[in-house]
Automatic annotation (TrEMBL):
<comment type="similarity">
    <text>Belongs to the 5'(3')-deoxyribonucleotidase family.</text>
</comment>
<feature type="active site" description="Nucleophile">
    <location>
        <position position="6"/>
    </location>
</feature>
<dbReference type="Pfam" id="PF06941">
    <property type="entry name" value="NT5C"/>
</dbReference>
<feature type="active site" description="Proton donor">
    <location>
        <position position="8"/>
    </location>
</feature>
<dbReference type="InterPro" id="IPR010708">
    <property type="entry name" value="5'(3')-deoxyribonucleotidase"/>
</dbReference>
<keyword id="KW-0378">Hydrolase</keyword>
<dbReference type="InterPro" id="IPR023214">
    <property type="entry name" value="HAD_sf"/>
</dbReference>
<dbReference type="InterPro" id="IPR052419">
    <property type="entry name" value="5_3-deoxyribonucleotidase-like"/>
</dbReference>
<dbReference type="InterPro" id="IPR009206">
    <property type="entry name" value="Nucleotidase_putative"/>
</dbReference>
<protein>
    <recommendedName>
        <fullName>Nucleotidase</fullName>
        <ecNumber>3.1.3.-</ecNumber>
    </recommendedName>
</protein>
<dbReference type="GO" id="GO:0009264">
    <property type="term" value="P:deoxyribonucleotide catabolic process"/>
</dbReference>
<dbReference type="GO" id="GO:0008253">
    <property type="term" value="F:5'-nucleotidase activity"/>
</dbReference>
<dbReference type="InterPro" id="IPR036412">
    <property type="entry name" value="HAD-like_sf"/>
</dbReference>
Length: 191
């Protein structure tokens, strides 16, 4: 299968690291995000949040650890013959930080598509992705409405009922299980 994989919140545990940094910067004590648009939780404008990220991008993209099980999961998918295509909202100007982080944690990559906060549907369709791993419910809905099944990695900011075409996964163990069930992977193989 050709699998689309978001980076922040799916491979990189970005939001946990960013919340710590943002609490220090804005003098807040946010414990977990309720909104994917973080500026809402921190009570600042989109512009103020954007400026902070622009001024600190190298640091903010370097500090997160991988999401638990992400590296091992991606390694398994590739070993099993799947193609992983990263599709991120990051901009092309952030490519060097993204590649540096993937290499730091030895996470394999071949294709990274930078959407610069544009809709991911066009990229998913152009690359003929067969399934998509995402954490942002808005992207998940748009991608699934385009006919591509989505595995939504559970997060504090994506709670609620899901429309058809989107399956919530609690962790990478469940992601691997779902992909194996949808592909030709032998059912008796261990996870």
């Amino acid at each position: 299968m050709r699998i689309g994989v978001d980076i922040d919140g799916v491979v990189s545990d970005s939001y946990r690291a960013w919340v710590r940094e943002l609490n220090g910067h804005f003098g807040t004590n946010i414990l977990e995000l309720k909104n994917y648009d973080m500026h809402l939780d921190f009570g600042v404008s989109w512009e103020a949040m954007g400026k902070y990220f622009d001024d600190n991008v190298a640091h903010l993209f370097d500090i997160p650890h991988p999401v638990a099980g992400a590296k091992e999961g991606i390694d398994k998918l590739i070993r099993e013959g799947h193609e992983v295509v990263y599709v991120t909202a990051r901009s092309l100007e952030e490519e060097k930080y993204t590649v540096r982080w993937l290499e730091k944690y030895k996470i394999p990559y071949e294709h990274i598509l930078f959407t610069s906060f544009q809709c991911k549907v066009e990229y998913a369709l152009h690359w003929k992705l067969e399934i998509f791993l995402e954490d942002y419910l808005g992207n998940a809905q748009a991608i699934s409405e385009a006919g591509i099944p989505v595995l939504l990695l559970d997060a504090s900011y994506n709670k609620g009922e899901l429309p058809s075409g989107i399956t919530r996964c609690q962790d990478w163990h469940e992601i691997i299980k779902e992909i194996r069930e949808r592909s030709s992977y032998p059912k008796s193989a261990s996870i």
